[in-house]
Amino acid sequence: MVTVALLAAACQTEPQPVAADPAEAVMANILSRKSVRSYTADTIPAAVMENLLRAAMAAPSGRNIQPWSFVVLNDTSRYDEIFGDNHNMSMFKQSAVVVVICGDTTVVRPPRDNPDAPAVQQPSGTWRDDMGAVTENLLLAVEAYGLGACWTACYPYLDRMAPVKQALGLPATVVPYSVVPIGYPAGDEQPKDKWDPSRIHYGRW
Amino acid sequence: MVTVALLAAACQTEPQPVAADPAEAVMANILSRKSVRSYTADTIPAAVMENLLRAAMAAPSGRNIQPWSFVVLNDTSRYDEIFGDNHNMSMFKQSAVVVVICGDTTVVRPPRDNPDAPAVQQPSGTWRDDMGAVTENLLLAVEAYGLGACWTACYPYLDRMAPVKQALGLPATVVPYSVVPIGYPAGDEQPKDKWDPSRIHYGRW
User: Fold this and answer.
1) Chain A contacts of B174, Cβ < 8 Å?
2) Cβ distance of A19 and B19 shorter than 8 Å
3) How close, in Å, is residue A96 to chain B by CA atoms?
């Protein structure tokens, strides 16, 4: 069921035998992750779904503020209300589940230059960076379980965020960051080979 | 050498036997990732270093713009010039290598509403989100190889970015996004257990 390809064969068409070395298994997973945009009608086991969210919540965050929350959706009859005229609608409706990854743009803590002062609610400087890591963790776990997903951006596009925020009843300081449809792949999407040594500089640009 | 702990034992002190199931290996890796802030004097094999950067470049990016570049540093005599009075300096100087993950804030392409028009250089709407995923991929590969690292923010802090950009000679549209010191762990940092089911909502908030 799990079809993680070997590192050296990450771009081949057929699933490959799985590496015994855990580092190779991790590398193969990272190199096999891909955007999957069509899904079978199969549902996702609850235990797998929990592990996907465990992976997401294991992301790092600046000063460990953990600004994330998740809204899990599978009632497609509500998607027109929730996602408006989002151009990814057909993908959302075909998927087994849609996870809306939300980020709190504020944090409640003492001022940085006065740790003994009372905690106040203030803008977070790094919430958006944290959310990128959360989303990537989710996508990597999806790949590991033989599922497929596609990261679709919500933030910073106001026209996409507005209906989601309204329909899901998000708190004032919470924004819908990314929308991730997940399901078992119906097609045979392959990972892109993006390795480009010219992007690496040593000592200086 | 690889010390990925089993999923069920991610918060125990001793390294655990490695799971044979690749999905378990991937989950264990994600749940074992941690910030490591002290390092031994050991250097990182070139083949491992290449795989770390392969993992980073396998990240997704909005419309596949791949806005990333990497500056790899190990000449600590230059770090005062490069990092100024960054409060993470002692960690940088102790690590085997520092990777400065850079992002191009612009993209050259036709206007979104007119794909047949000539390509023009324009701000990227998602480069920052892409960089979060790149950084997380690097950190997960670091963990897989028994190395340790710590994501330190550079963008959006102007006082941290300025000396890096100047000293490394970054192009005008490229910013230093994150600074990641990497080395073999000298201590026994453990991953945080951040699992919190109250962060998950079903159907609506």
Assistant:
1) 205
2) no
3) 14
Contact between chains at A136 and B132 (C-beta distance less than 8 A) = yes
- Nearest by CB to residue A141, choosing from B21, B26, B203, is B26
The model's confidence at residue A8, banded by pLDDT at 50, 70 and 90, is very low
Contacts of A27 in chain B (CB under 8 A): 51, 54-55, 141, 144
Domain parsing of chain A, residue ranges: 1-32, 35-189
pLDDT in tens, B67-102: 999 999 999 999 999 999 999 999 999 999 999 999
Give me the amino acid identity at A171: P
Residue A142: its pLDDT value, please?
A: 98
- Chain A residue whose CA is closest to B48: A23
**Closest CA in chain B for residue A175:** B205
CA of A58 to nearest chain B CA: how many angstroms apart?
A: 6
Q: Name the CATH superfamily for B36-187.
A: NADH Oxidase (3.40.109.10)
Contact A75 B203 (CB under 8 A): yes
Cα distance between residue A108 and residue B113, in whole Å: 40
Gap between the Cα atoms of B161 and B163, Å rounded: 6
Residue A53: how many CB atoms within 10 A of its CB? 22
Query: Which region among A5-19, A34-48, A90-104, B114-128 has the lowest average model confidence (pLDDT)?
Result: A5-19
Of B51, B11, B40, B49, the residue nearest B28 (C-alpha):
B11
Instruction: Report the candidate in B92, B57, B184 with the shortest Cα–Cα distance to residue A195.
Output: B57
Cα(A131)–Cα(A59) distance, integer angstroms: 9
Quick one: pLDDT at residue B19? Answer: 55
Q: At a CB cut-off of 8 Å and minimum separation 6, what does B185 contact?
A: B36, B38, B39, B40, B146, B147, B148
pLDDT tens figures, A10-63: 333 444 445 568 899 999 999 999 999 999 999 999 999 999 999 999 999 999
Question: What CATH homologous superfamily does A35-189 map to?
Answer: NADH Oxidase (3.40.109.10)
